[in-house]
């Protein structure tokens, strides 16, 4: 296997390569037993602690891990390295020493040979202590998984978790966020950034929306919920469509339902984004600001400039996700045979089965 020359990333690439090899080698229902021991567990916990890992990382090496068809089992995590070495020598079992384990370029080796011996001089029972700490973190992660995150889903399908503004401890909210991101397989930011973001979300004024950038995505607080959404949102409807045509986009589907005041099936329509401060006529004849309409419908702020008007011959007849408008075309009702109204169904709502946050 080829790993490249950058020493800073070679450990990560080597680990990924090992698991690809395990996946290839372990068949359906089979188990691969590994000899990770207590010292490996302690090194892992301390190494991840120094890197700022949260509860999921600080629970250490799991006793079992699923592969594509089988699993990895590690039954020796409670037994120290010296005890295993003595057993192998007494039983005259041969074993292999990896020469790369003595290379101080790698952080884990530096911990093993330079840091842990110093710790042992001062705290000889550190192995058992750190092992208990890892077990405690494992219990916390298990509790979080069993308790569930209670995912909320916003009107446009963005998932989020709600929080209590009366809670005075941002650390608790940061822990939930850490668990959520890790569960989704996302890159988890430094814990200090998460705690600071949680603090801002909990204590910000009602008109503020604290944000935390996560590469191409964002965590954003709004109305007591922290949502996860793309940095740049786009409903991605085509410029031209036909009433009754189901349109699937990367973020949802445009569907249609029967409505006596709707648009005749088969009508050729166009879409465009509203202009700044644009107003439309709503059922009842009043003209309303589009931004105000979207606010009243609990459309999150990051979506409000990206939601299209649907037009018939240049007249706005619908606004997503609000629905039908009062058309400026006087004979729309007379022409309406098999009348339809557009309905926007966001993908994440369909997948998560969550409730709409209002």
TrEMBL record:
Pfam family for this entry, one: TilS_C
Enzyme Commission number(s): 6.3.4.19
Keywords: ATP-binding, Cytoplasm, Ligase, Nucleotide-binding, tRNA processing
Record-level GO cellular component terms: cytoplasm
Domain annotation Lysidine-tRNA(Ile) synthetase C-terminal: ranges: 269-332
Gene Ontology MF terms: ATP binding; tRNA(Ile)-lysidine synthase activity
One GO BP annotation of this record: tRNA processing
Signal peptide per UniProt: none
Record-given protein name: tRNA(Ile)-lysidine synthetase
